[in-house]
Design goal:
Elements lengths: L27 E2 L11 H15 L11 H11 L11 E4 L2 H12 L5 E4 L6 H8 L3 E4 L10 H11 L3 E5 L11 H10 L3 E5 L23 E6 L12 E5 L1 H8 L9 H11 L2 H4 L3 H17 L3 E2 L6 E5 L4 H10 L2 E2 L9 E4 L3 H12 L4
Parallel strand pairs: 1-11, 3-4, 3-5, 5-6, 6-7
Antiparallel strand pairs: 2-8, 7-8, 9-10, 10-12
Bound molecules: 4'-deoxy-4'-aminopyridoxal-5'-phosphate.
The site of 4'-deoxy-4'-aminopyridoxal-5'-phosphate has 13 residues, from helix 3.
Length: 361
């Protein structure tokens, strides 16, 4: 048996372990911030019909420019305050691949990306995979990121790319638009705002899309994996200046989005209001977690996403195992005395809280 260490692998990948939250078959999975509600039946029927139609031409390569999907994504984003044109849209197999495209085009060997840990762990892993140097900036108290703190990090690192995450995973922390604009003005490179959880922000809250006009180095990434309840389909996307989209065309593999993915995503977007019906209820469960975890004596951090990071956990591993023994999977994100839990259905949230309350502390 050959081991990884025996292979002529790149030196910078030696000794690394692959990313991956444990994938366990449990009754209540609250570990990777999915929408835990299944896709409504009427949408399943519509998506299945679209996939069947697509299968009749599956002998041919798909539309490399995913024209219909870009139009639908632009329409979806334009329901907010900022009109977004199809030429401003890029998509790939999950926003992870979108982020990889960004670093393939704007990062790479000899270049630096600045991020602000604790943040989405794939940001630094994709940096490593693309040979981009990862520079870690500091945060303020309670994981906040003020314009001053962020700009100081930009000045020190002089990065080619800056990754911001709004709201931030794994902490749930909101990010002010003032921090985004200050980072943009202080930097010369691409500024990417990862808004994977944007739909869970308070109603009417302005998002980073509103900052796009006139800022050709700003990129806002989104995903259908979270609020949209479409994680298994793998569809992430971004909005930016059309010139940025042209840059991403240089690094994508031809036909990277399968015809089945395009058809499924278009059909789901045609039912956007139905797909997003659960967002209000998920926000309520998140706010309930904030209240109830504090009542149980933990220290939850304010969250604008569909999950809550809570401190005051004496032994995170023991708490994780206690919940798992009751068929509930949450996430140890490696922060001392903290755990993260996704806001599920009311019944899932109730069961999580009840099992946690019964734990010997
Ligand atoms: N960005 C953030 C902040 C995330 O939390 C996640 C998923 N956990 C992603 C991007 C990637 O999502 P996907 O590849 O499914 O679009």
């Amino acid at each position: 048996m050959t081991s990884l260490a025996d292979l002529p692998i790149r030196d910078d990948l030696r000794g690394k372990t692959p990313y991956g939250a444990p994938q366990k078959a449990v009754r209540i999975a609250l570990n990777v911030n999915e929408n835990t509600h299944p896709v409504p039946d009427e949408v399943v029927v519509h998506v299945a019909a679209a996939i069947e139609r697509e299968l009749r031409t599956i002998n041919r390569y798909p539309d490399r420019e995913f024209t219909a999907l870009r139009e639908h994504l632009a329409g979806y984003l334009s329901r907010g305050a900022t009109p977004i044109a199809p030429e401003q849209i890029w998509a790939a197999n999950g926003s992870n691949e979108v982020i990889q495209h960004i670093l393939q085009a704007f990062g790479g060997p000899g270049r630096r990306v600045l991020g602000f840990p604790p943040t989405y762990s794939m940001h630094s892993i994709i940096a490593a995979g693309t040979g981009t140097e990862w520079v870690a900036g500091e945060r303020d108290d309670d994981f906040a990121l003020s314009p001053e703190t962020a700009v100081a990090a930009v000045r020190r690192a002089d990065p080619d790319v800056v990754f911001l995450c709004a709201p931030n995973n794994p902490t749930g922390t909101p990010l002010g638009l003032d921090t985004i604009t200050a980072v943009y003005e202080a930097s010369r490179g691409i500024v990417m705002v990862d808004e994977a959880y944007a739909e869970f922000m308070p109603e009417g809250q302005p998002d980073a899309l509103s900052l796009l006009p006139g800022r050709e180095r700003l990129v806002v990434s989104r995903t259908m994996s979270k609020a949209f309840a479409f994680a298994g389909a793998r569809l992430g996307y971004l909005a930016a200046d059309p010139a940025v989209i042209d840059a991403l065309r240089l690094v994508r593999l031809p036909y990277h989005l399968s015809g089945l993915t395009q058809a499924a995503a278009v059909a789901a977007l045609e039912h956007a209001p139905t797909m997003l019906r659960t967002v209000g209820e998920i926000r309520e469960q998140r706010d309930r977690l904030l209240v109830e975890l504090a009542r149980l004596g933990y220290a939850p951090h304010d969250s604008w996403a569909n999950f809550v990071l809570f401190g005051g956990v004496a032994d995170p591993q023991a708490a994780f195992e206690h919940l798992l023994a009751h068929d509930i999977l949450i996430r140890d994100v490696g922060l001392p005395n903290h755990l993260r839990v996704t806001a599920g259905t009311p019944a899932e949230t109730t069961e999580f809280l009840e099992v946690l309350a019964r734990m010997n502390r």
